[in-house]
Structure prediction request, 428 residues.
Amino acid sequence: MTHVVVIGAGPAGLAAAGHALDAGAEVTVLDQADTPGGQYHRGAAHRFGPLLDRCTWWPESTVWALEGKRVHVLRGPADGTDRARHTLEPDALVLATGAHDRVLPFPGWQLPGVFTAGAAQALAKGEGVAVGRRVLVAGAGPFLLPVAGSLLHAGAGVLAVLEANPLPAVLDGWSWRAAAHVGKLGELGRYAGTLARHRVPYHLGRTVIEARGDDRVREAVTARVRADWSVVPGTERTHEVDALCVSHGFVPQPELAVAAGCALDGGFVRVGPDQRTSVSGVFAAGELTGIGGAAAAAAEGAIAGRAAAGGTPSRALLRKRAHARAFARRLAAAHPIGPAWRGWLRTDTIVCRCEETTYDDLERAVADPAAPGPHALKLGTRAGLGPCQGRMCGAAVADLCGTPERHHRPIAQPIRLGELADPKETPA
Prediction:
């Protein structure tokens, strides 16, 4: 029997597991969280009990390294001191590690009280915690709407939702072939209804360009922005806030794919028609292969799981994936990142929060002819060398410096020296 290991229990990973099981494979599912579902299904873990009863489910499992298809795992809470090391050597591997928020730097974004939208939603959906009483949700993309809804449900006071892109671009994306995407338009309508019931305004062509405060965020400065995200002078407004929730889309988490030797295209894992990567026996699905949302991720996961188990994806699955990808492309066109966002920055704006690298540090390093190339730039400024290893600032640093974002990390997740040195690694 084919043994398939699935890394990630979000929409893509769960779909992969289900279809691999249906194709007759033995399946092991790993995730760092203690419950399945990922960010999209957070708080709805009970829905996946029947699926996980059919496979081997490893929650609180951190994959810290890959060697081809060999999977090195630490099992146990991330803050625990007795995590056990295991090695898995499956016949096929499905990578469904997802994405995380992309947040563009702006003056004051390092202040306590400035959250990524995903973190604020996780607290609201998973713990019922509202991050503030006076909250602004800002950035770009449809994800801002469910975040605002989750915050309202948790009891937060949402002052407004700010989409940086202008009305014509957003309408063009959402109205394209509307009849073919009734489900998505219905979802949009539900979010709009939630905002209307709570009297939360939704402003297009406006965003947060500065956060102010001493010990934490106290004020947010918003401004109208043009289609390229340059600020319209004289449109600045100051709001009293106790929290900001910001997201400018998503970036994939390809570290494990890179460690396995998978080829990338534009930062995403390159896959074939059946979600097969450039490495034999390794498949990828979901946001790793292109930011497309839960529907596209689940469709890709279904195809990857069936192919990993040795089956052939049906035409219905292929059509579902094509349909979801087409809608995702339109939304990406409706919510792009304007190239003039760097105009928000001042010389002392922190870009890498871990190492407190400023915009001025980066500009001087890029202009220094004695230290060319991304490696020298990283060593000279320390941008991306902190605890998050560039996960928060990597995309912004790459944009500002005109260098490719680097994802090669032989040790993909934090591991204690004692855990690394422990010779007792258990095959499974």
